[in-house]
Amino acid sequence: MKIDNNNVVSLTYDLYVTENGDKKHVESATTDQPLVFLYGAGMMLPKFEEHLTGLSIGDDYSFSLTAEDGYGEYDDKAVAPLPKDMFGEEPLPEIGSILPLQDNNGGHFQARVVSIVEDAVLVDLNHPMAGHELHFNGTIKDVRPATEEELEHGHVHGEGGHQH
Ligand SMILES: [Zn+2]
Q: What is the pTM of this model?
């Protein structure tokens, strides 16, 4: 069975970025805990899925995505001040730490503390991998048709997916 829309795909991957000419390992999914996702449901980077089209169980893959096709170019204007009041009695976060934040629509995102000024903590809102070319390699472990219910819900059920 070849990877196509409405398949549930399990795969291993290693993700590397290039930093100052060196390949740096960022994260991985292993055979024991593969990444399981509903192909074509818009959960993954579109170009990531595009590179996997037509592969079958047992196939190895290796490809790179430009920053633009990955998490976007780095935007040096995407720095926002958080008023110090926001932290109340809590100690101010350290420079370089990652803050879990919530936007007005309830979406979760992470911001990295870049500096602390008089009355505000400045955070970088870029995705941590923004501006980086992404290098992926791994193996396709399983491809199966999604169930009606999975398609309705738009996500995978069972192992590696939603347990409900
Ligand atoms: Zn569900």
A: 0.80
